[in-house]
């Protein structure tokens, strides 16, 4: 059946198609509808062989095979929410202990057993982490933070000087009751390291002790682990070598902020574990992650030709699209497949929330370029404290906007799918995250790419390190006070990029009175540079 035929069906045929393709699970209160995507019942048979291999690959991964070939690492984020499936008792016991330690630590902070040096309860957390180490905790906070319950979380996830200054000053009034959490697997990643150094200086400059309120989340034996141990930090939690940042939310990276805001981490882990179990079923029709990944594959012709638009219809999931950006794009955006063929794979992800986007980019989704598919995320249960006023219930209108947008897109021939949960709580968020994690893993098998490495990210880090090194060489060269052209500096340093030298010097001259660039900026090749 052609895709256009699906959208031109009468209501009776659409209903039969909906029933035939709907997946649901009563234990999680969960539905997945892919009936408005380019998927046919016959696809289950056509894709059976490739999915059989994909299911086996994920089973091998969970059994402890080396899945991240580039780094020679296992990939074990699925073990975090069900230690019993870990490949060794050592790993299983360490996960169980970590969950217990985090639960006890969170309870001790919240009930005042652990206080500052003056016996004052902690009120705030200043969280320093980038990528998944920042987005995961932010998603936890936005999803579950309640007024007057738990600590307030503040995030430093960039090295923007203005942002660092603003965020540090925002906690000044509560500095004596603020915990500082530093997340870095290696302890050497520049962004969290710089953030930590700035925060440490801020604390010490304001006559507060750093070590007694600092917490590290890092790999055992890392630079950060050694530092925190030597300085006797308040606590250290494990970020295992076999967990990537974008899949670390069901480990300490997500559990610690959940515990500190009073969320139920057991429900969160159980929800993820329940979804894991559903997505281990080796049958496309009865595996929600397989259905989701098949819909993605068919929509983009297996080449990522359509963007993924994420529209959760709840404010608490507003940052979920940002979270998925890293999970999906870092995992699937690869230049080469496993056989070293250049494939330039990936799925672009963007989104915000409903019904905000009724008044933003839905206009283009309905009438513009047809290069996307929409993931609607629906929550059925409305808060009891929000009641009917003047014959209007906000939840009814929100549902109406979702159904209306879904219908408008379908009528316009635009592909969309809907994920529905009865209620939104720790369990459903855990399940939602696990669903997308498994769908990403399966999709990666379909297109034969390594979902667990990030060569593009590593290339960016290496290039940034090279620029920082070049800047130090430039500063050292100019210490003699001599005037030089850009080309003379380039030759003296045996550099391969005059442009990089120019960009570095332009930034230096703007931020220091010691560096001058004499001449017309529109003709940078003729500029005279010196240090006074």
* Total number of distinct structural domains: 3
Number of strands: 16
Inertia-based shape: globular
**Largest beta-sheet characterization:** 6 strands, mixed
Structural class: alpha/beta
**CATH architecture annotation name of the largest domain:** 3-Layer(aba) Sandwich
Proportion of strand residues: 5-15%
CATH level-1 class of the largest domain: Alpha Beta
Query: What Rg do the Cα atoms give?
Result: 26 Å
Describe this structure in words.
The protein is of the alpha/beta class and 532 residues long. The chain folds into three domains: 3-63 and 281-453, 3-Layer(aba) Sandwich (Rossmann fold); 77-263, Glucose-6-phosphate isomerase like protein, domain 1 (Rossmann fold, 3-Layer(aba) Sandwich); 456-531, Orthogonal Bundle (Arc Repressor Mutant, subunit A), CATH 1.10.10.10. Helix content is 46%, strand content 13%.
Give a short summary of the structure.
This protein has 532 residues and is of the alpha/beta class. It has helices at residues 3-7, 11-21, 41-46, 48-62, 89-110, 132-144, 161-170, 190-205, 223-230, 252-260, 265-278, 288-299, 320-332, 362-367, 394-411, 426-447, 455-478, 486-493, 498-511; strands spanning 23-25, 30-33, 66-68, 73-74, 124-128, 152-156, 178-183, 214-218, 235-238, 307-312, 349-351, 372-379, 416-421, 484-485, 515-518, 528-531. It folds into 3 domains: 3-63 and 281-453, Glucose-6-phosphate isomerase like protein, domain 1 (Rossmann fold), CATH 3.40.50.10490; 77-263, Glucose-6-phosphate isomerase like protein, domain 1 (Rossmann fold); 456-531, Winged helix-like DNA-binding domain superfamily/Winged helix DNA-binding domain (Arc Repressor Mutant, subunit A).
């Amino acid at each position: 059946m052609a895709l256009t035929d699906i959208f031109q069906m009468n209501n009776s045929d659409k209903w039969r198609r909906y029933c035939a393709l709907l997946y649901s699970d009563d234990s999680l209160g969960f539905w997945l509808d892919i009936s408005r995507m380019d998927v046919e019942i016959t696809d289950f048979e056509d894709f059976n062989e490739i999915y059989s291999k994909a299911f086996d690959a994920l089973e091998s991964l969970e059994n402890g095979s080396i899945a991240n070939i580039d780094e020679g690492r296992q990939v074990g984020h699925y073990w975090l929410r069900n230690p019993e499936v870990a490949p060794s008792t050592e790993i299983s016991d360490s996960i169980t202990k970590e969950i217990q330690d985090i639960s006890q630590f969170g309870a001790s902070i919240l009930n005042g057993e652990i206080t500052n040096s003056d016996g004052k309860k902690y009120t705030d957390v200043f969280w320093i982490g980038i990528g998944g180490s920042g987005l995961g905790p932010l998603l936890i906070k936005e999803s579950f933070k309640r007024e007057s319950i738990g600590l307030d979380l503040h995030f430093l996830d960039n090295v923007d000087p203005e942002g660092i200054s603003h965020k540090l000053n925002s906690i000044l009034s509560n500095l004596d009751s603020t915990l500082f959490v530093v997340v870095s697997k290696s302890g050497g990643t520049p962004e969290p390291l710089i953030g930590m150094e700035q925060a440490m200086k801020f604390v010490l400059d304001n006559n507060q002790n750093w070590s007694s309120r600092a917490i590290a989340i890092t790999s055992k034996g890392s630079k950060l682990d050694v530092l925190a141990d030597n300085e006797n930090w308040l606590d250290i939690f494990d970020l295992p070598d076999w967990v990537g940042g974008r899949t670390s939310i069901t480990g300490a990276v997500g559990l610690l902020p959940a515990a500190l805001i009073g969320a139920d981490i057991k429900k969160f882990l159980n929800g993820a574990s329940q979804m894991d179990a559903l997505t281990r079923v080796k049958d496309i029709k009865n595996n929600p992650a397989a259905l989701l990944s098949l819909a993605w594959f068919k929509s983009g012709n297996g080449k990522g030709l359509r963007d993924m638009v994420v529209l959760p219809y709840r404010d608490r999931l507003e940052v979920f699209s940002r979270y998925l950006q890293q999970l999906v794009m870092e995992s699937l955006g690869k230049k080469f497949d496993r056989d070293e063929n250049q494939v330039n794979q990936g799925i672009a992800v963007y989104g915000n929330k409903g019904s905000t986007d009724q008044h933003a980019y839905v206009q283009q989704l309905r009438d513009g370029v047809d290069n996307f598919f929409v993931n609607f995320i629906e929550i059925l249960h409305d808060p009891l404290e929000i009641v009917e006023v003047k014959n209007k219930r906000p939840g009814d209108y929100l549902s109406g906007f979702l159904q209306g947008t879904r219908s408008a897109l379908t009528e316009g021939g635009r592909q969309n799918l809907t994920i529905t949960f009865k209620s939104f709580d720790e369990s459903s968020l855990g399940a939602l995250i696990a669903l997308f994690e498994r769908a990403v893993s399966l999709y990666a098998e379909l297109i034969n790419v390594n979902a667990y490495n990030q060569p593009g990210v590593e290339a960016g880090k290496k290039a940034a390190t090279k620029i920082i090194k070049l800047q130090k060489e430039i500063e050292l060269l100019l210490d003699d006070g001599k005037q030089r052209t850009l080309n003379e500096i380039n030759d003296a340093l045996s550099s391969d990029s005059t442009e990089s030298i120019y960009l570095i010097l332009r930034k230096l001259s703007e931020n220091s009175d010691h560096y001058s660039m004499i001449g017309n900026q529109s003709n940078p090749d003729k500029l005279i540079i010196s240090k006074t």
